[in-house]
Design brief:
The protein is an alpha/beta fold.
Length: 653
Amino acid sequence: MSVTSAPAAADTFPRLLSQHAAQRPEAPALREKYLGIWQTWSWRDTAAEVRAMAMGLAALGFKRGDNLAIIGDNRPQLYMAFAAAQSLGGVAVPMYQDAVAAEMTFVLENAVIRFAVVEDQEQVDKLLEARDSLPQIEHIIYADPRGLRNYNAPGLMGLEALRAKGDDFDAAHPGFFDTEVADGKTTDVSVMLYTSGTTGKPKGVCQTHEAFITAARGGVQFDHLVATDNVLSYLPMAWVGDHLFSYAQFLVAGFTVNCPESAETVMTDLREIGPTYYFAPPRVFESLLTNVSIRMEDASRIKRWLYDSLMMVAKRCGADIMDGKPVSAKDKWLYALGNMLVYGPLKNTLGMSRIRVAYTAGAAIGPDLFRFYRSIGINLKQLYGSTETCAYVCLQPDGQIKFDSVGTAAPGVEVKLADNGEVIVRGAMVLKEYYKRPDATAESIDSNGYFHTGDAGVFDSDGHLRIIDRAKDVGHLSTGAMFAPNYIENKLKFFSHIKEAVCFGHDKDNVTAFINIDLTAVGNWAERRNIVYSGYIDLAGKDEVYTLIKECVESVNAELATEGELSHSQIARFLILHKELDPDDDELTRTRKVRRGFISEKYAPLLDGLYTNKHMQHIETQVKFEDGRSGSIAADVKIMDATRFPAVNKAAA
């Protein structure tokens, strides 16, 4: 099958793909590790696959304006499905692969999904279950045939069969594909990404080719990304960050996207690929550092001494050396020694030896965590954006990294604060509309074209933006003092022993907190102290663990004491939840955002115990198991008081 020559204007994703296929046909576009071996698709291969898939969809009746559901782990064929739908003027609708059938139903119905391309048997089963109530789902195409040999549901077929249909359709309709690609407009919706739905039903965010290509080009130019760069694509395709980094920037810059074999092999595959461009949410960087800390505790005394000594050097001057700032000759020499003995081997172990640019976003990252990675020579930066802005609002310029900000306005983006302190933005990257929600669109985009992010922020003297909290979550204690729960929760989660935190205090006399411990970090801590435990519930209730978490809470209180009005938001009482908060139990969104209102209702007895001076509270909680069954767990949860500190001037502190 021939690949079309590049159109004159590469201003839509299919036309960008055609441009790369014409200009650099043999260069690697996509890789996937399958059965332990890396498989490669060149740009020519990718364009040919996309064409065959698009023609197969056309043969089945897919047409301009239709929505294509895409569900599964990161796979080259699924990324190709995005381009196949867009080549025909359709819209890609990626969905979270770990969502259960009931969660998928809303999106499938709302987006009027008739066609779906999925990864494997697991996703096929969920869609067939959903089809019992949504007969609109006509065609389900799967990439991995394992386990599906005896399935004979109507409209079910493998990718091989779809490609065969596509070849036949292409032969019978010469010029059809080229015409469809040429007819695409930059203002056409290219993808629909659903919001996490923390306070209600998810909304479909309609983004155009122009919006994502503008965001991608801005980021590519800002960080000097080139065609020889490599990325590891492992975060959910339904998440806006993955769509920007692993699809939009991939097609703009022409670098290579690598898909790991499975979630379990990500770290191994990361070391094998050695990406030059990397993205991960803070929890991934936290987990990596926790694992390093655990391994160092197992090391010999000499190795621990060497590590601790050289890491002190790195913390003192590593970030300055990276930013090109002056440091003493002695520190340069010591840092070079540390790079040879500690930092270099550590980066190699993490799979980060070749990284030129690394980004984190989605939640605040702790200053100590941020400082650690930059100190060992990893150019870790923060960005700020949302689904409605293609994850593109603020970026941190090299040499101007601040640990408590998200940087300055990205190229082509206007950022300012509304009168109430809300961050509002304007630019080509703003959503076209919310799908079937003109009311929500009108509410979010004002008459001047500014999108209201819902985040409360402030600018510092250098024009760097600092995000405080979600504007709707910023409340007040009964005394009138400001209460920013997410801000406090992030401070708590900076500790490796705390995995999740939920704070309460609006209209209350004081602030309280639910804590989830990190089972790996606290479990290792307990084992080293010969504390025997049988599982999460048992460990979470140990007096020693409560003392450990109390130290973390009081450390946060000491920080808050120096932060002006927020000094009144110190945590008075806390408890350690008897179970981990879980998206399957509706306590977190699929992007791990806290559903605060749901949690306060579900755990009302515990919340009542925090505010009625109890020191123990019994609770029985409904849970969902991995196999789909429901059950309940019961526990007597301890409640502990925390020391609060007098407010002090930050400069004096």
